[in-house]
Write a structure and sequence with these properties.
34% of the residues lie in helices and 24% in strands. The protein is of the alpha/beta class.
């Protein structure tokens, strides 16, 4: 049965809750991230009884306007969704995969294969608590151990304590100390660091020099990207850690934010062109625009562009666990995704047990759509 045989017959909305396994702390710029958050899941049902779901916004009127439309008008399995239907982007991909009896990653081409490396992105400033008390470095290792018990073997560490929360000199020293401690405890792990633009170009280079023995896999969002700053960073990495990747593109300058969202979600086309140019100059290796805020269909356009210029992508996946799986489906579909961000935890009523994380690898399911059942 093809998509043209199905018409959207109904849309249901379900409120659920995302739950992390522990309260998530601070990064360089934002205070504690909390533990639980309410979400809205949108379930699409066709006149033939097929269903698909995805998280969505609260504008039910905007979404219900598509009832009665042929599914083939709302999604092309080879391209994605038209701009008018981007509010249902994820749910329509899930639905199309189920109608076609294909996992999304195979619908996208299956060039990346069924396994994608994954890291835990949940190692924040756990040595600090909301009252500003210093809990010590044991708290960092405890978080790493908790995520390792769930199959994670690679760790992204938030750095930039000296930007806002600690004395600059003391905070920068703590960043180095934390990085070396995690490397000591996990000698075979990929160590990634994320400064959330909390360093200057000179400051991050000093950090990298002091912690060069940690053998970084990548350095993420070290500062607000400029060609001059990234050139200094690349020069330093070539000297102290030549295999380290530079990952950037998650944050958006305020003047480049698109609202309402356009073809690339909240990212402007001009800003993406600047990021592509930095990739072509070998100043950025991996682009990180958020899979939710950019959109799944947008990433279907972005990935071939990156591969054509010799760069890679890893859609930012924080804050919901299932966003990691969406990012991994893009990796399985196109290749060129060296590793994806893992978000430990679960969403009430979402059965994602067909996704398996073991020894730092995420295995994608062969089940149709995104391979997650909604049981609400």
């Amino acid at each position: 049965m093809s998509l043209s045989d199905h018409t959207l017959a109904d849309v249901d909305f379900h409120r659920t809750t995302r739950r992390y396994p522990r309260p998530i702390g601070w990064n360089a710029k934002i205070g504690p991230h909390g533990q639980n958050r309410d979400l809205i899941a949108c379930v699409l049902t066709t006149d033939q009884g097929a269903t698909g779901w995805g998280y969505c916004g609260e504008n039910e009127e905007e979404i219900r306007q598509f009832i009665g439309r042929p599914i083939s008008d709302l999604i092309d399995p080879d391209v994605g969704t038209p701009l008018e239907a981007r509010c249902l982007d994820i749910a329509l991909h899930d639905l199309a995969g189920k109608i076609l009896d294909l996992p999304v990653w195979k619908m996208l081409g299956g060039k990346g294969g069924q396994t994608v490396p994954i890291y835990t992105g949940a190692i924040y400033f756990d040595d600090l608590n909301p009252n500003g008390d210093d809990l010590g470095l044991d708290a960092i290792i405890a978080s790493c151990e908790q995520d390792a018990a769930d199959g994670h073997a690679h760790f992204k560490l938030k750095i930039g304590r000296g930007f806002k929360w600690m004395d600059k000199e003391v905070g920068d020293a703590r960043d180095v100390e934390v990085t070396k401690l995690v490397r000591e405890h996990y000698p075979d792990a990929k160590i990634l660091v994320d400064a959330n633009d909390g360093y200057t170009p000179e400051g991050i280079c000093t950090y990298l020099e002091k912690a060069a023995s940690c053998d970084f896999y990548w350095v993420e969002e070290p500062f607000e990207e400029t060609q001059q700053g990234l050139t200094l960073l690349r020069s330093t990495l070539d000297r102290v850690s030549p295999h380290t990747l530079v990952a950037d593109g998650e944050a958006r300058p305020a003047e480049r934010t698109v609202d309402p969202p356009g073809p690339y979600g909240k990212w402007s086309g001009d800003h993406l062109e600047e990021l592509y140019a930095l990739c072509e100059r070998n100043l950025i290796d991996v682009l990180l625009m958020d899979v939710g805020a950019t959109g799944f269909t947008a990433w279907r356009e972005i990935m071939p562009r990156l591969l054509a210029i010799g760069a890679q992508g890893s859609p930012h996946a924080w804050s919901e666990p299932f966003k990691s799986y969406y990012a991994a489906q893009i990796g399985g579909g196109y290749g060129g995704v060296p590793i994806v961000e893992g978000v430990p935890g679960h969403v009430d009523g979402v059965d994602a047990s067909d996704y398996v994380i073991k020894d730092g690898l995420l295995t994608l399911p062969d089940t149709p759509g995104f391979g997650m059942n909604l049981c609400l």
